[in-house]
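Hey all, quick one. A colleague (J.T.) asked me to put the zinc ion job into the tracker so the inputs and the structure tokens live in one place instead of scattered across chat threads. No bug as far as I know, just bookkeeping. Sequence used:
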Amino acid sequence: MENVQQVRAVWTGDEWELHFVCKVEIEVSESPGEKTVGVDLGINNFAALAYEGGHSELYPLNCLKQDDYYFSKRIAQCDNSDSEQATRLNQKQSTRRTHYFHTLSKQIVQRCVEEGVGTIVVGDLSGIREDEENGESKNWGKHGNLDLHSWAFDRFTDLLEYKAEMEGITVEQVSERDTSKSCSCCGRERKANRVERGLYVCDECKTVANADVNGAENIRQKVSPSPAEDRSNGWLAQPSTFLFDKETGAFAPQEQVTS
Ligand SMILES: [Zn+2]
């Protein structure tokens, strides 16, 4: 136990846990490939991914929304918000959220290994905070029943970075500025371009894309620009959707999840 740097007692809501912080040497794998993937983090789809070469994926927040609904209802029924019961419920929800973030970051890294991705490009959220201050927010905070703060995204990015590193994958953060306004196909900035029911429609090149995938592809291209032909076969508009399956505790393609 000579590598233990810190011991913490953590109250989980049900019991005390001892957390040991250790220094360990980890074996880092060789990079799975040369490809890049763009990741757009957001509130409707927690993550939208655009893979170089033409493939896209969405990870909606279905189960976090259900959780939020369930826990906020239970907490509202407590006598007061400082009560032991309310505190326990808050902690339980937080534990579940942490588990979700761990599982999702693992899933994304796993997909990157399968797709031969060597670099994950993530939108740097500091740009969004500026937008937030200018009143042009990306709808953080209360969104329906979901109360998700920007720290959750920072936390998630940290987890992703750590898990990616072990697989030899680099994570680069780039500014998200204008990535939701520009057409990822022709580069035209939105004036007449519009978003309708989650679809980005370009008035110039007529590209129709899932709006979050369009953002992810713009983010990806900041590190690795690629020719427009790579975006011509409709994959920007046809993402595969993965849902968190409560029965297995893992992510699976939407078709396979019964909920
Ligand atoms: Zn366009």
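Adding what we noticed when we looked at it: The chain has one domain: 4-244. The chain has a mean pLDDT of 85.
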